Structure formats: C-alpha cells, structure tokens
Amino acid sequence: MPINVTRSSMPDFEEYCNEIRELWDSRWLTNMGVKHKELQAKLEQYLGVRHVTLYTNGHLALENVIAAMNFPKGSEVITTPFTFASTTHAIVRSGLIPVFCDVNDVDYTMDVSKIEALITDKTVAIVPVHVYGNLCDVDAIKLIADRHGLKVIYDAAHAFGVTKNGVSAACFGNASMFSFHATKVFNTIEGGAVTYADDALVQVLDDRKNFGLHTPEEGLYAAGNAKMSEFQAAMGICNLRHLDGEIAKRGVAVARYRERLCGVDGIQICPEQRDVTSNYAYFPVVFDGYKYTRDEVFERLRAEDIIARKYFAPLTNSFECYRTLPTAGADKTPVAQHLAERVLTLPLFADLTVGDVDRICDIILI
Ligand SMILES: *Cc1c(COP(=O)(O)O)cnc(C)c1O
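# pyridoxal-5'-phosphate complex -> structure
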C-alpha cells in the first residue's frame, strides 16, 4: 500500500451533507453567510483569541494583514528562509524587503540571538514562522519588538491547536496567520485566518478581503478578493468537531516515530518543547552523519511507494525569483542551509497506523 506524506482529515460524507443542506434553501453561497459566521465564532472560542478573520487561503490572509499594517513601501521585514514559499512571497508582494534571519538548530525557528543585528532604521516588523508546529521563542521576540517598536506577525500556518501554558498560538504577536489548507492539521479544503486582539483591525480586514469595499458604494482600499465560501466554512465546522481526536491520533504515530528513531546515531529529532502542547503537524528528521544521506533515505522510501518530503528545501533566500534581492543567498543563513540539505518530513496524518510507522522506520533503519 502506498503511503503519501499526508492525507486530509475529513468528516463523514453524511455529516458534511447535513452541514451544507441549508445552503440549498438559502442560496447564500459566500460573502460572510451563516456558516462563515458560525465558523468564525467557533474558532474564536477554540483558539481563545479575541478576533478571527477568515480567508479563502492562508497566503492571502498573510498578505492582507501585512497590508493592514500600512508599512511604507521598501521597509524591511525580518523573517526566516526556512519556510514555505508563501511567507517570503507575501512580504515581497507587499512591496517590502525580506531580511533573512537564521534559525536555531534545536527547534528550527528564528534564532532570536541573531535578530537585533539585522535591525536597521528601515525595519518595521518581524515575521517569524512556527515551523512544524514548534513555537518560536515568543517571549524573546516580544521583548525585541517592544524595544525597537516593531510589529510581530507570526506565520502560524503549522501551529493550529498548539498551546503554550494553555495559551494558544493564536495569541502571540500583533497578529498570526493560520492556513486551513487540505494538508494542514485543521482544514477547510482551502482556507486560512488572521487572529489578533486589536479591535481596530476588524473592519479593516473585513473590508480588505472584499475588494476594499467598506459598503457597496465606498471603496477604501485597492484590495482584492480573499473571502471564504460557505462550503469551505461548513467543512471547517465539521472538521473542528473531530479535531482533538485527530490530533490525538497523530500523537500516537509521533510517539511511535520517537520510540523508533530517537537516539539513533546520525538522526536528529526535535525535542518536545517545554510547556507546549503539540498539534503533531509534521515529523521532521535530520540526517546528519547517518549511514544514508537524506536523499538516499528519500529514494529508499520512494522505492517502497512511501512519499516523504524535503520540506523545507530549497530555502526561500535561494529561490530563482530572489536572485537580485540584496538580502538573498543561503550562505547568509548557514544553520537553515545545513537543515535544508538534511531534513526530511516523514508521512504523518491521523489515520497513519503504528504498523505504517514501523514499516517506514524499518526501511530507514535497515
Ligand atoms: C501552508 C502554508 C502557508 C500558506 O497557506 P495556504 O493556505 O496554502 O495559502 C504559508 N506558510 C506556511 C509555513 C505554510 O505551511
């Protein structure tokens, strides 16, 4: 049986049909209908955050919240290259310059000891990434941001359901972006959200995701269309009912991976973070001095119809489209570069069985 790197969580077919049935009566399919309002309220409660604004995907959520901050064009934003393309693209597409901070080699999030050296009089914000669901050092980042008057917008695409001392990942920084893409721990097929506490942002974000129209006759911003539909919201309402169970099932698979792979010479696994409850979003493994290279492990698994992913490689600061960017160059972020050459994320989803994990580990360890 082939095993893919991920497999979307879905409710029973009947449950989804029941959820969307009333849309055939109302004929209200998008534009902030009843399902949209219900999902938003449920997420505010689940995440314990004051405001959630829903989007049709996580990427546009990030672009919209950056736009809402009104940074002058050409300003600098400190971020990391060890992320999905979306994070860096959102900064660049907003007319801002990404300044790449290296990551640490323990949990692969932004190395907070290297942030301040990158701050200039043009710096306006920090966009760190909670990679693999590992939380950034949110306290250190807050101290630095406060000291220098910078905004903090987290890419929390991997961190839905993660809490630190009971506080959800949605509550850190000025705002956080979540992705509800089909491959994420919580999905609305395609979808995303911005979470935040500032009441003044609500109307701005609501207007911006709907062409910048405040009312049909009042165009406040030259903005695009990023609305979540009723069908996406309905999928989210269903998936949220089962989320805790799905995360628990992921946790069983991760516990087995840890049992089999921790302590093996040449294999590096992220330690569990203190005071943090994980969502078990990904299982990254770094092959550093192991008997097989990362690429060899990838090929050995593929030969058995098991698809792992070289996630994240390449680094965004080595993308072709950023060749002319003065801040580009993977050599400027050596830890991230080291990881990108050696990391593999192994298959992980709620229905991955302990037997599947054993099969995968047997191939890696043999
Ligand atoms: C998935 C992802 C995004 C983009 O989210 P979409 O919903 O696919 O647009 C951004 N950043 C990271 C780190 C992601 O994994």
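# post-check
The chain has two domains: 13-237, 243-365.
The mean pLDDT is 98.
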